[in-house]
DNA sequence: GCTAATTAGC
């Protein structure tokens, strides 16, 4: 018997190394009559669940007649890890129907799955199940509940699950601290951090990650620096999780010098820490530095896999800043990494070239894509629209439909935007009706804004007003704002007053709207109204920023 | 065997 176990174990590790076909392993298990041993079944389910071979996992699971809690938990976990939540949940129901009772880990696992699938109703159901099965005071279940509720934004319920436990353990404290951070309640999270230490519990890396990730906004800079000091004192700064969290925190504060200092102090740089630094520079608009560190990273991590998501986000930064040099360099990296056939990367490249003024390159990449999805089409439609090539945008739209792809709300934004750039009112009207009637895409604020602009610029103010008035639900101030700006251009003072009244009713106190209205008044020579508005603005402390032009390189006031 | 870090293309 012992020999059989030894043999299987050595085979297992060999399989892990050489990745031989699983069928042979199954044959071996059958031969050794180990298929009914829950210990080995659990091991196999765990290992092959990771590699995603669920046919095999199921075969082993079904072949085992004496299912232990461990075996059940490992198959539920395997499905949940693979984000196959429905299968995880139905396994759990299967467990409830059978003889093996779920334990705290089974519940913790499905609770987490509820959180990851944003299923609040099911989460409440499992919470009930936890209480009914006598696990209401169990720390494992309650930490899972705290995490799940807070990640779904239900802080109060998370707090309730926390307070059930009279003596919270470290995990429990950590869950609550990161829970408060998730919900933007960094003050509560800090209070918990102090409280746990008062009660004699020492924080670990998880605690600090939870605490740090909640610190955002200029008010928290001092706190952040204090927590950073705590990390230095207790030598948590070298923990890779804590370190990249600190880098990210300083990036949020727009203190890239501090972020860079933390980064420089990290011992083991991994992809996450690099990404935290690079995307930090992108978010702060320091594209040169972003591209410098990106280059440095590519030189350092040789051999290891490059993260396509990171490249896509740096490409987006190049597109936004219309930095063609950076864009071309990134394109080179894409080619070197063999990522050119990645759909996400290609769309980012198309967008970058279009926004940098090289429509031809954008088109070429699009044409050469072996597989196109809705995002690729949306990107090229938008790019063409940007250049005033509306009819080509429409052609792409038809091609997209012919390819059997479903247009979404972004598709219609891109199309309506193309109409705006070319002043195609009739096409815009038609698209707006088709999007809901034919494609069941509900128009959003941006779609209304585009159509209102189209109508307003064509002088169709009555229709624009009707459109806004007939839209369901409360009207976003941006839509009235779009109408008002058209009134300003067209000099329609009656409609301008209507739109402005609506805007001020909704409490949109943007100085720009008042300026627009006052311009319309000025055009009509209604100076008393102009002065009234100006006075109101000075009283409210709303000042118009003086116009500033950067054309020519030196800021010239206009 | 419960809790943790980054980025996500239009």
TrEMBL record:
Pfam families attached to this UniProt entry: E_motif, PPR_1, PPR_2
InterPro entries registered for this protein in UniProt: E_motif, PPR_At4g14850-like_plant, PPR_rpt, TPR-like_helical_dom_sf
Gene Ontology biological-process annotations: RNA modification
Keyword ATP-binding: no
An example Gene Ontology molecular-function term: RNA binding
Repeat region (PPR), residues: 68-102, 169-203, 270-300, 373-407, 408-438
Keyword field: Repeat
Protein name (record): Pentatricopeptide repeat-containing protein At1g64310
Organism this protein belongs to: Punica granatum
